[in-house]
Design goal:
The protein is mostly helical and 197 residues long. The chain folds into 2 domains: 49 residues, Arc Repressor Mutant, subunit A (Orthogonal Bundle); 138 residues, Tetracycline Repressor, domain 2 (Orthogonal Bundle), CATH 1.10.357.10. 66% of the residues lie in helices and 0% in strands.
Length: 197
């Protein structure tokens, strides 16, 4: 099976599952409904996933699909800092509008207790590759302070995003994730910007 076909099939299953989880709730969604919604087969489903519970770890895959989509819309004339803020805003809008708060909380709790690979921290994900590319471009353009490495800036950014998501889950989504991040993330990341006065 080609790599592209594999990604398309798995992606269709993941997208269908999270759509149904959001619309019907996790507990009320069956594997059969996911297969039907994704227009795939039972064999394909079980090729990629052991069962419905294993789909909880696929949220990072969904996020990476969003980042791939966003990478095609990036404006090359925008500085790297603003590009990072744009990516965060668009991802958080997607999360607010299509990811169940309960499932996001389950994902975070599962990552805290897992003994194996923590997929949210997988540096081979599209997410990390795109962030390193943007920050590297910013470093070359002199937009970030030289005493920090690309990896340090990326780590700080991802840490801030996770903190904002975790707090939003803890607070049961009582405020707009997007609006809060628009205020807080630039303040957190300001330390890394070069003063261009």
């Amino acid at each position: 099976m080609s790599k592209k076909k594999t990604r398309n099939t798995k992606g269709k299953i993941v997208s269908a599952a999270w759509k149904l989880f959001y619309e019907q709730g996790y507990d009320d969604t069956t594997v059969e409904e996911i297969i039907e919604e994704s227009e795939t087969s039972r064999g394909s489903f079980y090729h990629y996933f052991e069962g419905k519970d294993s789909l909880l770890s696929s949220l990072s895959y969904l996020f990476d699909e969003k980042y791939e989509e966003l990478s095609e819309t990036l404006d090359d004339s925008m500085n790297s800092f603003d590009t990072l803020m744009y990516l965060n805003r668009e991802l958080f809008v997607m999360i607010e509008n299509s990811i169940s708060l309960d499932l996001l909380a389950r994902l975070y709790s599962s990552q805290l207790v897992t003994r194996g690979d923590k997929h949210l921290l997988d540096h081979n994900r599209v997410y990390y590759k795109l962030l390193r590319q943007i920050v590297s471009r910013g470093m070359e353009a002199g937009e970030f302070r030289e005493e920090f490495t690309v990896n340090e800036i990326v780590k700080a950014y991802t840490l801030c995003e996770r903190a904002l998501l975790y707090d939003w889950c803890l607070c049961n989504g009582e405020y707009s994730l997007k609006h809060y991040a628009e205020k807080m993330l630039p303040m957190f990341m300001e330390k890394f910007k070069k003063d261009l006065k």
